[in-house]
Design brief:
heterodimer, A: 200 residues, mainly beta, Sulfite Oxidase, Chain A, domain 2, five-stranded mixed β-sheet, 3 helices, disordered N terminus, B: 88 residues, four-stranded antiparallel β-sheet, 1 helix, 7 strands, DUF6510 (chain B), DUF6510 family protein (chain B)
């Protein structure tokens, strides 16, 4: 068909290379919730990093907004099989939040205002791989998508990108989180389809 | 001397209670102590798994995760499930 130029086909091929196995592309941004959506005002919001030594660093909303902001563009992949390409965010890199933290931790746990947790190796949240984001597509992050702030860890399944994020704790040992304790994979690499715990 | 036996002995007791409809069982929330039928829990199904929360304190009582081959049931948010023994 004349409307399908070689360039267009090339673009589609490249897009499909960006969709992990077992996933389909969506233009929507589906809302998944394991509980009621909490209402968190920015006056009540804080973000805390706790190192394995107990050393704590806390930012309130104004202090957090004054940190260097980044605008990552990321492809996101939900374990329920939808993927969304080129999502745009604004927030603070975890590297910035860890700059003053003295740690030799091997693992991290992300905590939220509604009691959710999710775990990952420490090496996966550093070197420009993870952020705490407060804007999506140029707008303040809506509460249903985790506002005022959510964790963003796009190279793992999106359940790791916890909504309503409140803290990161650092640990010497792995501490499986809300879904990781309940049957989902401990690591969750979408390119390896690490959806569920394997073995018996 | 060995003071315990293996889990096979549970089969005799538990076959009576895991055949009936679990939604009729009474569940006690480990958070606030609320006791009520499993069917009365607040369920969130639009999530990677299914989450059932206490109607009073919203604590997660049950989590259900289903893969193509397996089903995980997490009951850590409950202190008990109480079943009527069939025929009693």
């Amino acid at each position: 068909m004349s409307g399908l130029t070689p360039g267009f086909r090339g673009h589609r091929r490249i897009e499909s290379d960006r969709v992990p196995p077992g996933q389909y592309l969506t233009e929507d941004f589906p809302v998944l919730s394991a509980g009621p959506t909490p209402s968190i005002g920015t006056d009540d919001w804080t973000f805390t990093v706790v190192a394995e030594t107990g050393e704590r660093h806390v930012w309130d909303w104004r202090q957090f907004a004054a940190l260097p902001q980044e605008t990552p563009t990321a492809d996101i992949h939900c374990v329920t099989r939808w993927s969304k390409l080129d999502t745009t965010w604004k927030g603070v890199s975890i590297d910035t939040l860890l700059a003053e933290v003295d740690t030799t931790a091997d693992f991290a746990v992300v905590h939220t205002f509604d009691g959710y947790t999710t775990n990952m190796p420490f090496a996966d949240i550093t070197d420009g791989q993870a952020w705490v984001v407060t804007e999506y597509e140029g707008e303040p992050l809506a509460a249903e998508h985790g506002g005022p702030a959510r964790f963003l860890l796009p190279h793992l399944y999106f359940w790791k990108s916890a909504k309503w994020v409140s803290a990161i704790t650092l640990h010497d040992e792995d501490n499986p989180g809300f879904w990781e304790r309940a049957g989902y994979h401990d690591y969750g690499d979408p390119w390896l389809e690490q959806r569920y715990q394997s073995g018996w | 001397m060995n003071d315990h036996i293996d889990g096979n002995m549970l089969a005799g007791a538990l076959w009576q209670v895991f055949r009936p409809d679990i939604t009729a069982a009474q569940a006690r929330c480990a958070g606030c102590g609320m006791v009520g039928p499993v069917a009365g829990l607040t369920v969130y199904a639009d999530a990677p798994g299914t989450v059932a929360r206490c109607v009073r304190c919203e604590q997660v009582n049950l989590q259900l995760v289903q893969s193509p081959t397996d089903l995980w049931l997490s009951t850590t948010g409950l202190s008990f499930l109480r079943f009527r023994i069939p025929g009693q």
